[in-house]
Design a protein that fits this description.
This protein is of the alpha/beta class. It is built from 5 helices and 6 strands; from the N terminus they run βαβαββαααββ. Strands 5-2-1-6 form a 4-stranded parallel β-sheet, covered by helices on one side. α1 packs across α4 and α3 packs across α4. The longest helix has 13 residues. The protein is globular. The chain starts with 15 loop residues before the first strand and ends in a 10-residue tail after the last strand.
């Protein structure tokens, strides 16, 4: 009887990628990043295992949204106390903590279990063009979220 071979730590080659978020659409960028973290771009993808790669996102403060989302999209957080919900718009959060916008978008696209929490630790987001992961020799990954051509 033949069985499907599961990937092991030895057969997995986990790479590091650098993604430039400048002038990229938030949702489309987050989808691509979530697929890489999950490992869906590899032939060894297994739904219940961590087969994905590490992703470093730079220039998080330059990510864009379309339409009126910049002033109407709300981010909520709760302190756990009665009446402790705080809300802020995309623009307010981008001025305060621009990394959190990409983190929340990608986190919402990962599984809602212990595997998703483990995968989320492989995402590193920085607001400027610099990051501290040069020792891992990350490859530059170009993701184009801009529409191409006419209507």
């Amino acid at each position: 009887m033949e069985k499907t071979a599961l990937p092991t730590k030895d057969t997995l080659d986990q790479k590091w990628y650098v993604v430039d978020a400048a002038d990229q659409r938030l949702g489309r960028l987050a989808t691509e990043i979530a697929n890489i973290l999950r490992g869906k771009n590899k032939p060894t993808f297994t739904p219940h295992m961590d087969t994905g790669d590490f992703v470093v996102v730079v220039n998080a403060e330059k990510v864009v949204v379309t339409g009126k989302k910049a002033s109407q999209k709300l981010y909520r957080r709760h302190s756990g106390r009665p009446g402790g919900m705080k809300t802020e718009t995309f623009n307010q959060l981008q001025n305060r903590i621009p990394e959190r916008i990409i983190e929340q978008a990608v986190k919402g696209m990962l599984p809602k279990n212990s595997l998703g929490r483990k995968l989320f630790t492989k995402l590193k987001v920085y607001s400027g063009p610099d990051h501290k992961h040069q020792a891992q020799q990350p490859e530059v990954l170009t993701i184009n979220t801009q529409p191409t051509g006419g209507q």
